[in-house]
Design goal:
The complex is a heterodimer of chains A (218) and B (597).
Chain A lengths: L4 H9 L6 E2 L2 E7 L7 E7 L8 H11 L18 E6 L3 E6 L7 H5 L13 E3 L6 E3 L9 H9 L24 H5 L5 E6 L9 H13 L5
Chain B lengths: L6 E6 L4 E6 L2 H7 L2 H12 L14 E5 L13 E6 L16 E6 L3 H7 L5 E4 L6 E6 L2 E6 L8 H12 L5 E4 L2 H5 L6 E3 L3 E3 L4 H7 L2 E7 L9 H16 L3 H9 L3 H8 L16 H4 L1 H7 L1 E5 L9 E6 L5 E3 L5 H6 L9 H14 L3 H16 L18 H13 L3 H5 L3 H8 L9 E2 L2 E2 L9 H10 L12 H13 L15 H9 L5 H21 L12 H4 L14 H15 L10 H6 L4
Helix pairs in contact in B: 1-2, 2-19, 2-21, 7-20, 13-15, 18-23, 19-21
The chains are: A alpha+beta (218), B alpha+beta (597).
């Protein structure tokens, strides 16, 4: 039996990425560092159907330049900060920026720390918890995108002619992908960052493939 | 104009050249997109009557609907359009006289074609060696596909991603069945979604086109952004509301209809000789949900997730990429008296791996089973296969024969009409097809006034999705042209009427009359193309079985369709269509009124 919505959120509180808890697998993205629980976007792969509504929602909302910002424009999936990866046998993995507590993307940024701001070109906005690229200082080396791709969600997309994009901004505290997912596969909930393990979509797929499509698991 | 890309991509496989063609605002206004626009283009390519469907002159088109790529729920369907390699006129004037063909698939390929900047892809000519078409926005290449030859659907779906090195590419392809020339070969995508009907995959195979693989990054523009946002918000809110219907779609997909159809006596059972299946509870949605299915999957921005995958156990165990649906479950289950759920999933899996249309396949197997049962053929005819009702194993053997076009498989790969011609002995009476295209899983007895019209007047040969009356037919034609999925179509009404969506996207402010006339235009254009090939009212004929054989059980037990009564229903239909009562050919005035000639 699927977990109830409430159970799911309660369990998510203790969840960490790539773990399988009560027959469910989840991954996270969240805000703020420090010792307390942080608020994160959790993806529930058992609910995700791979419809990619989140991609159109994200891109529509975040590229809307009109006064009345809306997630209901056409959207361009290429410009979305959340991406759904489809694998075979059928598994869909939605990923957005994990907002990792150890920020390997920032670590890989070769731009020196500014004496004035204490930040590299890529840095964490401490007030929001999100990862931000300073377009004035970024040298376009794409190191962060490469690191994110090999070690984490891979949502930082290289742009060989400019600066990487794809870092989730949490839509000013109200993630639109979470609000409009037709399958309630995304949640914005608190977790403990210290308990979080981060996986690439490929690794999450391997785990789910084993869980769903092998004789051992049935 | 806004809301369309304004151009189609043309790939000539003979000369290995690709180019684009601009389309006029008028063409979009009259034919919208998808099936409609495809038919308009087809009418231009088929300058000669009797064009060989498997020859270089027959165009094969991938046509996303007008709404494809916009995130309206359940509006991402792509129509394959070509000339049919399956149908045949009863009094052919030319060797290759056949109907138009179209077939519809969901998934993600249509939106991606739109994102790449095209409103359709037209493939003409024929390659000497296997090729695939690579499209990344303006970059278009015809590439060698020799290494993919004979590769099954599921294998190829992953192999092509490795080849192009980016999981964001979408592809549509044929399996080994269509490559070898199975006439009912499908065009597949995502391993299981398929444009199954009408033999469009067979045409693709004849062109030696293994696949198209597409990625696009363009913005989708709208004529009226404010109206668009309002409509999309309304759609998301109302479709997202908890409704029993939506819950049911997610629970069982079309497989919900397995039990429903059997109960009301409308299921194709034992080669259409019965309407109710006693073993239905073993293969219905509840059985599949509890024993096999693990995941629900949706097409681009769809809220229904009717597609299922899972894992089957036992002798036929393994990964189930394509969970049982109404059509697959009926045609390979009830129609063959098979109630082994794991075996059924295995048969579906194998057929999809060969990339062949399961509706026709179920007809072929059912027809051969009945011939074998009636001793019109023996095991020698069947290459040693004892094709008895209700058994999975001989069916699997036969599917392999067909997929490989070996022995009897090469004959069975041509459909039931061909088989009845070589078997003879009045077997044509229970060869279940119209114009050579086999019927789908909805049985006729008791429902002939609607389904009979749908099957007989469908422009690709027998089709259950065409509609049982004129208005329904025009509407379903419009849905196929807009890319709307029929499962969600009933929710697009009032404020969310298709006309409003068209207005928000393209700016076309159609009246209800103009809108419905567009559907009528497309349907009549198809009919006119068919009549030009020599089809007439005589070809709109139901199989003899429905006028002779009564069911022995179920709600319609004992009922037999009355020919005179059915003819009068049809008379009424032709009259209201503006077609000649005797010939069934659209009258000059009708074609003029619809701006077809």
């Amino acid at each position: 039996m699927p977990l109830s919505r409430k159970d799911f959120i309660i369990n998510s509180f203790w969840a960490s990425s790539g773990f399988i808890i009560l027959n469910r697998t989840e991954t996270v993205a969240g805000t703020l560092t420090g010792n307390g629980p942080i608020k994160v976007i959790v993806a529930d792969y058992d609910r995700c159907t791979g419809c990619r509504t989140c991609e159109t929602i994200c891109s529509a909302f975040n590229t809307d330049t009109s006064g009345d910002k809306s997630p209901h424009g056409p959207g361009n999936c290429e410009q979305s900060n959340i991406r759904v990866w489809r694998f075979m046998p059928p598994v869909d993995i939605p990923v957005t920026c994990y907002l990792c507590h150890d920020t390997p993307c920032v670590a890989s940024c070769p731009v020196s720390v500014s004496a004035e701001t204490g930040r590299k070109a890529l840095y964490r906005d401490e007030s929001k918890g999100t990862i931000v690229c300073d377009l004035n200082r970024c040298i376009g080396c794409q190191s962060c995108a490469e690191t994110c791709k090999t070690e984490r969600s891979g949502v930082i997309y290289p742009d060989p002619e400019g600066s990487p994009t794809g870092m989730c901004n949490l839509c000013d505290g109200q993630p639109q992908c979470v609000a409009w997912c037709p399958y309630e596969a995304l949640s914005f909930v608190e977790i403990w960052p210290e308990q979080t393990k981060y996986s690439t979509p490929q690794i999450i797929f391997e785990q789910l493939k084993h869980k769903l499509y092998t004789i051992q698991s049935h | 104009m806004k809301g369309v890309n304004g151009k189609i991509l043309i790939a000539d496989l003979t000369t290995k050249t690709t180019y684009t063609r601009m389309l006029s605002e008028q063409e979009y206004k009259l034919y919208l997109g998808g099936r409609g626009l495809g038919m308009k283009l087809l009418s231009e390519y088929l300058t000669d009557q009797g064009t060989d469907p498997l020859g270089p002159a027959n165009p094969l088109m991938f046509m996303p609907g007008l709404l494809c790529g916009y995130p309206f729920p359940s509006s991402s369907r792509t129509c394959m359009v070509t000339k049919s390699p399956i149908t045949k006129a009863s009094k052919p004037t030319k060797q290759f006289a056949s109907t138009v063909s179209y077939s519809n698939m969901g998934g993600f390929i249509g939106p991606e074609i739109k994102f790449a900047g095209y409103d359709g892809i037209v493939v003409i000519g024929r390659s000497d060696t296997p090729v695939y078409l690579f499209i990344e926005n303006e970059r278009v290449e015809i590439r060698d596909a020799q290494k993919f030859k004979g590769m099954t659907s599921n294998m190829f779906d992953e192999a092509i991603i490795k080849e192009v090195g980016d999981r964001r590419f979408e592809s549509a392809y044929i399996g080994p069945g269509a490559e070898r020339g199975v006439s009912y070969g499908s065009v597949m995508n995502t391993g299981a979604r398929s444009a199954g009907r009408g033999g469009t995959g067979c045409v693709m195979g004849a062109k030696q086109l293994k696949a198209i693989v597409v990625r696009g990054s363009n913005n989708m523009e709208t004529a009226d952004p404010l109206l668009f946002k309002e409509l999309l918000k309304t759609a998301r809110l109302s479709f997202g509301a908890d409704s029993e219907s939506k819950t049911n779609w997610r629970y069982g997909g079309t497989a919900n209809a397995l039990q429903y159809s059997s109960d009301r006596g409308s299921q194709a059972v034992k080669n259409f000789s019965e309407g109710t299946f006693s073993g239905i509870d073993k293969i219905n949605a509840h059985a599949a949900r509890s024993r096999v299915w693990k995941r629900d999957m949706a097409c681009f921005t769809c809220q229904l997730a009717c597609k299922k995958s899972g894992f089957a156990k036992g002798a036929y165990g393994g990964v189930v990429n394509e969970g049982i649906e109404y059509e697959t479950g009926t045609m390979l289950g009830a129609n063959l008296l098979i109630d082994d759920l794991d075996g059924l999933h295995k048969m579906i899996e194998i057929a999809d791996d060969y990339g062949i249309d399961i509706i026709t396949l179920g007809n072929v197997l059912g027809f051969l089973m009945e011939c074998y049962d009636k001793k019109l053929i023996n095991t020698e005819f069947l290459d040693g296969i004892e094709l008895n009702w209700g058994l999975v194993e001989p069916c699997i053997s036969m599917i392999h024969k067909i997929g490989k076009m070996e022995g009897i498989g090469a004959e069975a790969a041509k459909g039931v009409r061909h088989l009845s011609e070589i078997i003879g002995n009045n077997s044509h009476e229970f060869a279940i097809h119209v114009k050579g295209h086999e019927l789908a899983a909805w049985n006729v007895q008791g429902y002939a006034k609607s389904l009979g019209i749908s099957y007989t007047t469908a422009n690709r040969g027998a089709c259950h999705m065409t509609g049982g009356d004129i208005n329904g037919q025009n509407l379903s034609t419009l849905r196929d042209s807009l890319g709307i999925c029929s499962f969600a179509a009933s929710w697009y009404r009032n404020d969310l009427h298709f006309r409003h969506l068209i207005k928000a996207i393209t700016g076309f402010d159609l009246t209800e009359e103009e809108f419905m006339e567009t559907g009528e235009r497309i349907f009549n254009l198809e009919r006119w193309l068919n009549c030009r090939e020599g089809f007439d009212r005589d070809d709109d004929a139901l199989p003899e079985r429905f006028f002779k054989d009564a069911y022995t059980s179920g709600p319609h037990k004992g009922v037999v369709l009355d020919r005179t009564e059915f003819n009068s229903v049809m008379d009424e239909y032709y009259k209201n269509r503006g077609w000649n009562l005797i010939t069934g050919i659209p009258e000059h005035g009708t074609l003029k009124r619809l701006h077809i000639i």
